[in-house]
Design brief:
The complex is a heterodimer of chains A (352) and B (327). By secondary structure, chain A is α/β, with parallel strands linked by helices. In chain A, 31% of the residues lie in helices and 24% in strands. In chain A, strand 9 and strand 10 form a beta hairpin. The radius of gyration of chain A is 21 Å and the shape is globular. By secondary structure, chain B is mainly alpha-helical. Chain B has a domain at 105-280: MetI-like fold. In chain B, helix 1 runs antiparallel to helix 15. The N and C termini of chain B lie close together (11 Å). The chains are: A alpha/beta (352), B mainly alpha (327). Chain A binds chain B through residues 69, 72, 74, 76, 108, 113-118, 121-122, 124-126, 129-135, 143-144, 147-148, 179, 181, 192, 195, and chain B through 222-225, 227-236, 242-243, 246-247, 320-323, 326.
């Protein structure tokens, strides 16, 4: 891929007629285990806009990763998307978009595979184990490129080298023939990013890409992702439990709890004016640099209920400081506007 | 890779030496020696053997010397390519073993190939379609294969082959080829006769290898790199065969080294039942009559085959998995 084709692709990525690039509506992904059905994602709604970053936040086990995998239809067994729509606007030619429901496509079919890894790429939490240990980095990179382009081995090799050097890996030509264990965690994640971006995706799903890395490397990877986003104009879904990371990378934030989006707003709004008690609790749980020594860190009382024992009504009510007896444990709140571009699902606000 | 290779070969040579000492010790373990059992056999027929005659015989066979001298002589002979004389057959051991060794190796190799080409695909399928009807069928057949004794299977198959096709599978050759020199016809005849022994010998190995492949692949299928490959847009079979299967086969390769000697030594009963002209029955008889050099040579050869098999699988493993070369 030459520099010019990349900038063309960049230009076309930036077309935004206001409609979201990806719209997840009422997504339900359930796991049918021997012990019962686990409602991993239970009615999630969010949108991704071209060139923007959506931060998907929540505690472990709230369904962030499953929601992301549902988009690509790569949910692990025994999980299955049981309901909802994932409207993706594909580009058929310059300026022409076709909106399709990805869930209507056959998960193993050619159309879905062209989108998976081609138009929507994904990077993962464990960079070291996300590469096959017995295949060279180059083998795995060029494979991704050749799956989505008509490039010859030589061209694919060159593209792979270009991308490796673009993500800041020294000696890319040499690295190409090495096995992943020769790379550090940070380098592996860079290589992973190179692999994901080498097909020129329009959306990058980053599933906790910095969680397994040390803090310095984290910052480098975040900077790299932001730089690449600025260059390519791709949209990003950034999944994390780290609000500090969200503050740095996200444009929009969706807060997830037990498989549902409980609050959605632009990043500044979320930090300045959180509405949902869960979001408020999450924000107060961030350790503060001006806190007193030996002070107990604030935490949310209780722990996430097991998804099989989902509480009645609002799923957060057993842990909620603003619990209204007779309402929160009986009725289910809906996501409704609580301000400009700001939605939350909580009975504290009218309309929910 | 070269350092790895040299290290492995060195270990191999040391192991073979240890095996030679051990096999010599094992032959010396039972009370008495060949002359004792020879005299017992003669006396059973009513012949009397005097003490002097026994001593003469012992001196003739070199049995009177201390064990380490005997071992030294034995090693010295082997170093010159002479495996010694079989007391029982009164011919050089090499002559007794000769063709039997070749047939044993052919049979063992055939069984390994049979085990691989049946067990690996079934194991892969069983893992990918875990808990499907096909998986349960494969599992059930696998356990039956593991549970049925080889010799019983051999008897049943012999009976069926005779009853259904009028095909006698005793031995590895038809009568007209048994003593004939090697020719194309003889090879074809051998292959025909090998089918049932290979199935009989390979069944237990196939059953366990199905389980091993399945278990390994199930582990690998849950690894993050599989998700990565899936997220690239590969087709399911494309990615399964390229990534997790490749990793799941590592233990399969190293296990083959252990299957191989088992096929040689463990086939004794099957060989007796099917009257196969392999090493097994000879080993059994030589141990019974304390035919020292013959038994020693066979045990040593099985040891060498184990070591060579392990060496080969180590090399193969080094080629397949770059991490192995590291240590």
């Amino acid at each position: 891929m030459s520099q010019s084709t990349r900038s063309e692709a960049v230009a076309s990525h930036k077309i935004d007629n206001g409609a979201p690039l990806l719209e997840v509506k009422n997504l339900h992904t359930h796991f049918f285990t021997g012990e019962g059905v686990v409602l991993a994602v239970d009615g999630a709604n969010f949108e991704v806009h071209a060139g923007k970053t959506l931060g998907l936040v929540g505690e472990s086990g709230c369904g962030k990763s499953v929601a992301a995998k549902s988009i690509l239809q790569i949910v692990d067994k025994p999980g299955r998307v049981v309901d909802g729509e994932i409207i993706y606007s594909s580009q058929v030619s310059a300026g022409q978009e076709v909106r399709r429901d990805l869930l209507r496509l056959d998960a193993g079919g050619a159309e879905m595979r062209a989108i998976r890894g081609g138009e929507i790429s994904m990077i993962f939490q464990e960079p070291m184990s996300s590469f096959s240990p017995v295949h060279t980095v180059g083998n795995q990179l060029t494979e991704a490129i050749q799956l989505h382009t008509e490039m010859s081995d030589k061209e694919a090799n060159e593209t792979a080298i270009q991308w490796l050097s673009h993500v800041g890996i020294p000696n890319p030509t040499q690295r190409l023939n090495e096995f992943p264990y020769r790379l550090s965690g940070g380098q592996c994640q860079r290589a992973m990013i190179a692999m994901a971006l080498s097909t020129n995706p329009r959306i990058l799903i980053a599933d906790e890409p910095t969680t397994a890395l040390d803090v310095t490397t984290q910052a480098q990877i975040l900077n790299l992702l932001q730089r690449l986003q600025a260059e390519t104009g791709m949209a990003m879904i950034f999944i994390t439990h780290d609000l500090g990371v969200i503050a740095e990378v996200a444009d929009e934030v969706a807060v997830m709890y037990l498989g549902r989006i409980v609050e959605k707003a632009p990043v500044k709004e979320i930090f300045r004016n959180p509405k949902h008690p869960y979001t408020k609790a999450l924000l107060t749980s961030i350790p503060r640099i001006d806190a007193q020594p030996r002070e107990r860190l604030p935490s949310i009382k209780g722990s996430i209920p097991h998804p099989q024992n989902r509480p009645s009504g609002c799923p957060f009510h057993p842990r909620c400081p603003a619990f209204i007896a007779g309402t929160c444990d009986v009725k289910e709140p809906q996501l409704a506007a609580v301000g400009e571009n700001h939605q939350a699902s909580c009975f504290l606000y009218p309309g929910c | 890779m070269l350092g790895y290779l040299i290290r492995r070969i060195t270990y191999g040579i040391v192991t073979i030496f240890a095996v030679s000492v051990l096999s010599f010790l094992i032959i010396q373990l039972p009370p008495g020696d060949y002359v004792t059992s020879y005299i017992a056999a003669l006396e059973a027929q009513g012949d009397d053997v005097s003490a002097e005659e026994a001593e003469t015989l012992r001196a003739y066979f070199g049995l009177g010397q201390p064990p380490y001298v005997q071992y030294g002589k034995w090693m010295y002979q082997i170093a010159q390519g002479n495996l010694g004389l079989s007391f029982q057959y009164r011919v050089p051991v090499t002559e007794v073993i000769g063709e039997r060794m070749l047939l044993t190796i052919i049979l063992a190799l055939g069984s390994v190939v049979f085990v691989w080409i049946t067990a690996i695909p079934i194991g892969i399928f069983s893992a990918v379609r875990q808990y499907s009807i096909q998986d349960y069928i494969a599992t059930t057949l696998g356990f039956i294969g593991l549970a049925v004794p080889d010799f019983l299977l051999a008897l049943v198959m012999m009976y069926l082959a005779w009853d259904w096709w009028g095909f006698s599978i005793g031995g590895l050759f038809s009568q007209e080829y048994a003593a004939a020199p090697w020719s194309l016809g003889r090879v074809v005849d051998l292959l025909q006769h090998m089918i049932i022994p290979i199935i009989v010998l390979g069944t237990a190995g196939t059953a366990s290898l199905i389980r091993i492949t399945r278990a390994n692949l199930l582990d690998e299928l849950r690894k993050p790199y599989v998700v990565t490959a899936r997220a690239k847009g590969m087709t399911e079979w494309q990615l399964i065969l390229k990534y997790p299967v490749r990793l799941a086969l590592n233990p399969v390769i190293s296990l083959t080294a252990y299957i191989f000697p088992f096929l040689v030594s463990g086939s004794i009963i099957v060989s007796v039942v099917l009257s196969l002209p392999t090493l097994g029955p000879v080993l059994l008889r030589s141990l019974l009559s304390q035919d020292m050099f013959l038994a020693g040579a066979i045990i040593l050869l099985i040891g060498v085959m184990t070591v060579v098999g392990t060496l080969l699988s180590d090399i193969l493993l080094g080629l397949v998995d770059p991490r192995v070369r590291l240590e």
